[in-house]
Amino acid sequence: MQQKTPYRGIDDFLRLALDAAAPLLLWLFYFFACYAFVAAGCASMLARMQWLGRPAISLVLTIATVAMTLLILLLLGRAAIRWHAGPRVLLSTARLGIAALALLGVIWTALPHWVMPVCIG
């Protein structure tokens, strides 16, 4: 009986690698989107707008942070389920670590707009 290999060529490898890297790719998108939104918002009228008694830019960034945190927590949960269910090989452990690192990245990216004013001047 022939044993299955973890991947069957470059197509499977690429799929597995992108699946494992998905949380970091989401964090990359979130990081870029936050800083691009702040740059555009501070240069426009959005910097002076208030929504629900808070600066509009801060409110949008908080909503984006909550959404991205929930999405990465979902991926972290999926990685934890795979880690517990299957054999503990490098890929399942890497998925777990990468998802945890991406969650830390989202929180670290969000800290400045929670503790400081977003637009100064």
Automatic annotation (TrEMBL):
Residue ranges of the TM segments: 21-47, 59-77, 89-111
Keywords in alphabetical order: Membrane, Transmembrane, Transmembrane helix
Protein name, per record: Uncharacterized protein
The species this protein was found in: Oxalicibacterium solurbis
